[in-house]
Amino acid sequence: MSKPEPADVQARIAFRQDKSGEIWRNDENSCALFNKGRDILHY
After folding, report:
1. CA atoms within 13 A on the CB side of 34
2. CA-to-CA distance for 34 and 14, rounded, in angstroms?
3. Eight-class DSSP state of 23
4. Can you give the pTM of this predicted structure?
5. How many CB atoms lie within 10 A of CB 9?
6. In the predicted model, is pLDDT for residue 4 greater than 50?
7. Non-local CB neighbours of 26 within 8 Å, separated by 6+ positions
8. What was the pLDDT predicted at 42?
């Protein structure tokens, strides 16, 4: 049985790819929101 992805997985996907299609990396060049999300999601 397949279940919908948990909200944290959906958020991780959103953080990893922005509207322009650029993938944010785990570094100081990433946006503050991504860094906040990374702390929660343990990138």
Report:
1. 17
2. 9
3. B
4. 0.22
5. 11
6. yes
7. 38, 43
8. 47
Vertex 31: Cα angle to 23 and 20 (nearest 5): 40
The DSSP 8-state label assigned to residue 30 in this structure reads: S
Q: What residue type is assigned to position 34 of the chain?
A: F
Tokens at 18, concatenated: 């922005």
Q: Residue 30's CB: how many other CB atoms inside 10 A?
A: 16
At residue 43 the predicted structure's pLDDT band, cuts being 50, 70 and 90, is very low
Cβ burial, residue 33 (10 Å; 0-12/13-18/19+)? exposed
pLDDT digits (tens, 9 = 90+) for 8-41: 666 666 556 566 666 555 455 555 555 555 555 5
